[in-house]
Amino acid sequence: MRLTWAQPEDLVPHELVQARAEGKDVSAIAARWVEAGGGLDPVRGGATPEAPSDGLRMLARELLVELDRVRSDSEEPTDWPGVHAMLDGVPAPTAVGGEALADRMLGAWTGRSAGCLWGKPVEKIPREGIEEILRSTDRWPLTDYFTAQGLPAEVAARWPWNRRSAVNSLVENIDGMPEDDDLNYPLLNLRVLETAGRGFTTDDVAQAWLADLPAGRTFTAERIAYRNLLDGYRPDEAARVRNPFREWIGALIRTDVYGWINPGDVGEAARMAWTDARLSHTRNGLWGAMWAAALASASLVSHSVDEVLALARTVVPVDSELAAAIAHGADLGRSDLDDAAALDALHAAYGRLHWVHTINNAALIAFAIARSGGDFARGVPLAVVAGWDTDSAGATVGSVLGGLAGFAGLPERFTAPLRNRIATSLPGLDGVEIDDLARRTLALLPAH
Questions:
Q1: Any idea which positions bind Mg(2+) (predicted)?
Q2: CA dist., res. 67 & res. 71, Å (int)
């Protein structure tokens, strides 16, 4: 068996890339790895097809420990006051309430589900493959869920659907929202909040993972953090031990609920997101989670996409690479470039990064939100056809635009196939109704 996102020989190339991104000098370690027969190209799909020699695997384990010991010249703060001090201009909370909030909350949960579903079949397929699939089925540009009807066999062979999603995420077979990690985490975090309250800790999140989250349904940084917890590392250590995925998108997809229970309070949404995200992520991975929570918070009280983006950017450290990427994406979204040229520009700027990194996907999310003008059917396809993390980017854009428009403002062709239910691998929650989730989320809002 070749387990993805876990084999030491597959982690070393990813860690070398991550270490260099943090300004570490790892040239000597890289040379030792290459001299022993190791490769430097990170695996796109999570695991190399063949196991290495026992000697190379043992060396990989040793080098991962050595790489963790290399210090960066710019260490980030590890406590919330230190992180908060890096922020500038976080606004005071905005007062909210009324029936409109209930509709917008339902829109956010539904939009996240539909946006995720839209991108599920083509997860791991690059931009050119997605376009070829759509053109060959006469559905370009993308305006609806994907279909295999009319797809030529040679195109299907060249660009196979995501294996788990082909059976439940195409127009012809959608029957409710299928299981997906982009929904598992919001569901799990809702349960954490209901159990531990608004003062939950990182330990509470870790305990919830171990109690309810199947290890096989974790990926990248979450899989590493899960392993580290089982190895006896504390929750505040788990993100920093042999974890080359610590700045990838995994934390960003987990934190919408913290925004939804703090509508108009992006600062508190970001603090809660940080409490969760520090279990598995650092630096831009952490800040991406804070930004996503702030987007969710802002979407429930704002009147335009520009207002959402302006509020959310206040919780991202101003001098960070993430802040620059978000600004660049939003600027492209507002530019006169057509969609193809704007996506070309995004790929030129961030195509060097893995398809599930935080930086490139955050730039894409900002682009899609800005260009959408608030239109769900305009914004989500842009997040999908870019060919990065199609379901995760689609989910976040869908969440924001659903919160902004409310359930009443979402097109029925995207909401009806959801059947008001979500499948999940979490115990006791499979088939949970979306409108019930919205009601439970509203119940967690702070008392005024």
A1: 389, 391-392
A2: 9
> Can you say which residues are annotated as belonging to the binding site?
389, 391-392
Q: Which residue has the tokens 């060097």?
A: 352
Beta carbons of 182 and 109 less than 8 angstroms apart: no
Residue 265 DSSP code: -
Distance of CA 345 to CAs 53, 337, 348, 382, Å? 41, 9, 5, 13
In angstroms, the first-to-last Cα distance of the chain is: 54
3-state secondary structure of 91: coil
DSSP 248: B
The two tokens of residue 285 are 């991975």
Cα 215 to Cα 224, 251, 276: the distances in Å are 10, 16, 17
Range 81-120+177-442 classified under CATH 1.10.4080.10: yes
- What type of residue is 267? G
Output the pTM of the full model: 0.98
Q: What is the pLDDT along the chain (448 residues), one digit of tens a residue?
A: 999 999 999 999 999 999 999 999 999 999 999 999 999 999 999 999 999 999 999 999 999 999 999 999 888 899 999 999 999 999 999 877 788 999 999 999 999 999 999 999 999 999 999 999 999 999 999 999 999 999 999 999 999 999 999 999 999 999 999 999 999 999 999 999 999 999 999 999 999 999 999 999 999 999 999 999 999 999 999 999 999 999 999 999 999 999 999 999 999 999 999 999 999 999 999 999 999 999 999 999 999 999 999 999 999 999 999 999 999 999 999 999 999 999 999 999 999 999 999 999 999 999 999 999 999 999 999 999 999 999 999 999 999 999 999 999 999 999 999 999 999 999 999 999 999 999 999 999 998 6
Q: Which residues are annotated as a binding site for Mg(2+)?
A: 389, 391-392
What six digits make up the tokens of 77?
């703060």
